[in-house]
Amino acid sequence: MADDDAQGFQAGQSGLIVRVPEAEPAVRAWRDQLDPSARAGVPAHVTVLFPFLDASRIDEGVCAAIGEVLGRHQSFEARFNHCGRFPGVLYLGPEPDTGFRRLTEAIVERWPENPPFDGQFDDVVPHLTIAQGQDETVVEKAESDLLTGLPVVAQVSSVDLLVHDGTRWRQRASFPLG
C-alpha cells in the first residue's frame, strides 16, 4: 500500500498486507518519519494486494473467499537482508520473495478486476517500504542505518485486511495461512 500517494487514500479503500512485526524495531522510527502510510496507521508490511475491493463490497462471503484462497498457502520464512530502491522509494527486500508473489497471484487470480497497484507495474516486486518521496540525503542516511540492523527474519503466517476510514488505516480481519 505504501506506493500510493498517501494524500490520495480515500475512505473505503482496502488492501491486503503481510505484517512484519519482526522488522518494527529496525524500521519504525524511519517509517514514522519518511513513509506517510506509517503515519496513517499502516504497520511495517509487505503488500499482497492494493488496492483491493471497496470496503462496501467486503462482506462475510468475501472474507470467507479470502480465507479460503489464503488458507491454501503454507506459512513461510522470509529474510530481509538488503535495501532496494524504486524511483522515490527506499525499501527492504525479502528473500526469498516467492511466498509473497504466490499470495498476490492467488488473490489476483480470484479477483482479477483488482490488479496490484491498479496495473501500474509489469512486475510487482514484494517489498517493505521505508521511505517515499524524500530527499536523497535523508534516504541515504536511513539506508546506511538500516543496513546495520539486517537481516530481519520474519515468519509469515497470516495476511491482514486493512480498510481506510477516511483518516487512518484499520485492521478489519486477519486470515491465517495453512
Quickly list its features.
single chain, 178 residues, alpha+beta, 4-stranded antiparallel beta sheet, 5 helices, 8 strands, 30% strand, disordered N terminus
Query: End-to-end span in angstroms?
Result: 24 Å
Mean pLDDT over the full residue set: 94
What shape does the CA trace take? Answer: globular
Could you tell me the number of beta strands? Answer: 8
**Poorly predicted spans:** 2-7
SSE sequence, one letter per element: EHHEHEEHEHEEE
What kind of assembly state do the chains in view correspond to?
single chain
Radius of gyration: 15 Å
Overview of this structure, please?
- The chain is globular.
- Strand 3 (76-86) and strand 4 form a beta hairpin.
- Helices cover 29% and strands 30% of the residues.
- The longest helix is centred in the middle third of the chain and has 13 residues, at 98-110.
- It has helices spanning 24-34, 36-39, 60-71, 98-110, 136-147, and strands spanning 14-19, 45-49, 76-86, 89-95, 128-132, 152-156, 158-164, 169-176.
- It has a four-stranded antiparallel sheet.
- By secondary structure, the protein is α+β, with helices and mostly antiparallel strands.
Task: Provide a short characterization of the protein structure.
With 178 residues, the protein is of the alpha+beta class. The chain is 29% helix and 30% strand. It has helices at 24-34, 36-39, 60-71, 98-110, 136-147; strands at 14-19, 45-49, 76-86, 89-95, 128-132, 152-156, 158-164, 169-176.
List the helices and strands and how they pair.
Blueprint: E1 14-19, H1 24-34, H2 36-39, E2 45-49, H3 60-71, E3 76-86, E4 89-95, H4 98-110, E5 128-132, H5 136-147, E6 152-156, E7 158-164, E8 169-176
